[in-house]
Amino acid sequence: MTKVLIPLVAGVVFFILWEIQFFHTIFQLKTYQLPLPSVIIEAIRENFNTLVNFMGYTFAEAFFGMLIGSSLGFLVALLATASPKWGKGGLTIVVALNAVPIVALAPIMNLWFGNEIGSRIAIVTVTTMAAMALNAHKGMSNVNPLSLDLLHSYAANKVQVFRYLRIANSLPYVFTALKINATASMIGAIVGEFFYASKGLGYLLSNSIKVAQMPLGWACIVIASIVGVVFYLIIELLEKIFMRWHPSERA
User: Fold this and answer.
1) Would you state the pLDDT for residue 246?
2) Where is the ABC transmembrane type-1 domain (predicted)?
């Protein structure tokens, strides 16, 4: 009960202080620079249909980009574990791609995939590959030597070792990567929309800032945050469902 109550009370106090302009006084901000919560809620109410429509578009970019990126990252981890000599090079390339800033990726992906949803999906794909590849590879590599010896004593081949030991052992790491990617994918999609898009929360946020409609801009931020949190919680729920056998979940 305390775990829920303390954050809830802290959140309520935070928004009350924001509403009475406590933070505006401390940081010397005007209300047009940092709109009040009541004004942001009003902006959400007035633009609800547009925000929901654009939110669906952005979430589609984030979801499909994360799905493709995580799948490719897992495949790279499989190859790196099965063939360390060649696979480590693949991990290095994935990490190098992840180090490229989104602002540099956006124009390149726009040239390759056009000014449609495909370019943002490609950006999210690149930004979510590394977390999955590194985490899954760690899970497949850090297996219990006794479990490995047991499978070898039963004459298990390499495919069986992967199926019954390495992949199963990697699942906690895979879900950790998915939870990281759940938030990273939303960031990638929104930032990508800042540069080349005609729809989405990032596009609406960028335009709102340009025309000084800050309440609408903050409404986009609030909606994106809610979607990101819900996306994370869905991954966490799936983890509890598929990881019931794991000691951490049984505890």
Assistant:
1) 65
2) 55-239
